[in-house]
Write a structure and sequence with these properties.
It is a single chain. The strands form three sheets. Strands 1, 3, 4, 6, 7, 9, 10, 11, 13, 15, 16, 18 and 19 form a 13-stranded parallel beta sheet that branches. By secondary structure, the chain is mainly β. The chain contains no helices and 19 strands. The chain is globular, with a radius of gyration of 17 Å. The chain is 0% helix and 40% strand.
């Protein structure tokens, strides 16, 4: 179904009571086994969306179509091995946490072509899995701190040019498929054992 369909948003797992508004930056969104009737169903992001934490837990094989829209995550993100990012219009994932050590776990799922993943909050993010952006994928570090925890990154472009405080700790991560590395001197970069 479409993100904007209010009849899809239950107040509890499998519950009949529905929300009267779409999720906001204060709401935790959980997709689970009760969110889908059968394997292969799809969530289509048909409007710009805001959530606090978002997770896919114990789901049937499910597709998420970014549909060229933006998903603004103000907290943590946890994907699932049974989640597939699909679509041809691209996907904008804006990570806006103001908290320290925010978990970012894509479970190594590959994003559909042309994704843009932006870290743009004053907090910090800890990768819990490899990050694979998909074809023509870009990562922007516009604000905050990202620690890769040694997980590999696959991206076509990495950008970090901003007046805001930014820090990137690559540790021993490898970055592959990279054709654009665009950073300014104000980025605090730790890449002692990283491989490009």
């Amino acid at each position: 179904g479409s993100w904007s369909e209010l009849t899809r948003w239950a107040t509890s797992s499998g519950g009949k009571e529905k929300h009267t508004t779409l999720p906001t930056a204060a709401d935790n969104v959980v997709f689970d086994l009760n969110s889908f009737l059968f394997t292969g169903q799809k969530i289509t992001l048909d409007v710009e969306a805001h959530v606090n934490n978002i997770s896919w837990e114990n789901i049937r094989a499910t597709n998420f179509d970014g549909n060229g829209q933006a998903l603004n995550v103000h907290g943590a993100l946890k994907a699932n091995l049974d989640l597939t990012f699909v679509g041809t219009k691209g996907f904008k994932l804006n990570l806006k946490s103001a908290q320290e050590n925010t978990s970012f776990n894509t479970e190594g799922r590959i994003f559909a072509p042309n994704p843009v993943i932006s870290f743009e909050g004053p907090g910090s993010w800890e990768l819990q899995s490899q990050l694979r952006t998909g074809a023509n994928g870009s990562i922007y570090l516009n604000e905050g701190t990202v620690s890769t925890n040694g997980f590999p990154i696959v991206a076509n472009a990495f950008h970090s040019v901003s007046e805001k405080a930014r820090s990137l700790d690559l540790g021993a991560s490898s970055i592959t498929n990279l054709s654009t590395w665009d950073i300014s001197s104000s980025l605090q970069l730790t890449a002692d054992a990283a491989e490009f």
